[in-house]
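dumping this here so i dont lose it
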């Protein structure tokens, strides 16, 4: 798989795939995964998205097959934005559709606000706009658990809230293993910066057509909280699905992928 030299000691691993007809004119979708994941988190989306788009699935700096970051690394969310813009430059791409889950949502929002010419549309799934507000007291207990028991144990411990009560045991275990593959140094350093993540000031500057998706009983941010910030993105749409997961991209992949495809076609035709 290809890598992009993103700088500051990181080679950014990415997947670049398209399963459209050879004669079809395809646009590009950039899929951005959440904390302690990799581009593999989007596998269930690929049958639909890959059939209609060129799909880029980067492993965020430090995660997946990208270079692990040291525990004391000075994480900057603007640097993560720069990584993705740099990847587009590296591939000779201009504007793309951006789909982001969980903590990648604010990174994508920041990208849309800072680089409006690079984001054709924005789909945000089970995401947040303020790390401190959304995580609250949970953050300290999460960091302590990772310190004492490791990344995979933390993933398994928090998985019921992430995937909801309806997720089968095999799915819980599979996602625990996927997230547990994250380097300890990366996860501890990244988690230290999450409370400082805040893009509420960027919402009014997002120009791209935006779709926000959440569940009606999310354990991260409820419908009212999501609606309050979603309304600040001009012309955005809100889609609420039944369920209590906050990783809606994982628990409702077919519905979310179909909604993203429909939204892109409706709003950017």
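and the seq i came up w/
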């Amino acid at each position: 798989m290809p890598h992009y030299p993103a700088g500051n000691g990181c080679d950014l691993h990415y997947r670049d795939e398209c399963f459209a007809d050879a004669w079809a004119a395809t646009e590009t979708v950039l899929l951005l995964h959440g904390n302690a994941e990799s581009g593999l988190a989007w596998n269930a989306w690929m049958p639909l998205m890959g059939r209609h788009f060129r799909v880029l699935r980067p492993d965020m700096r430090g995660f997946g097959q990208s270079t692990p970051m040291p525990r004391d690394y000075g994480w900057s969310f603007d640097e993560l934005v720069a990584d993705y813009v740099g990847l587009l430059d590296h591939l000779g791409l201009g504007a793309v559709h951006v789909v982001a889950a969980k903590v990648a949502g604010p990174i994508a929002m920041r990208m849309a606000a800072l680089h409006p010419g690079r984001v054709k549309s924005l789909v945000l799934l089970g995401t947040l706009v303020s790390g401190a507000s959304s995580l609250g007291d949970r953050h300290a207990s999460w960091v302590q658990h990772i310190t004492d028991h490791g990344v995979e144990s933390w993933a398994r411990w928090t998985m019921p809230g992430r995937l909801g009560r309806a997720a089968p045991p095999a799915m819980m275990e599979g996602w625990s293993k996927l997230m547990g593959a994250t380097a300890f140094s990366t996860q501890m350093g990244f988690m230290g910066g999450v409370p400082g993540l805040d893009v509420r000031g960027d919402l009014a500057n997002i120009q791209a057509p935006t779709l926000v998706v959440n569940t009606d009983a999310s354990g991260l941010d409820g419908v009212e909280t999501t609606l309050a910030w979603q309304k600040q993105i001009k012309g955005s749409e809100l889609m609420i699905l039944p369920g209590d997961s906050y990783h809606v991209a994982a628990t409702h992949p077919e519905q979310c992928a179909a909604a993203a495809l429909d939204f892109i076609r409706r709003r950017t035709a």
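The chain has eleven helices and eight strands.
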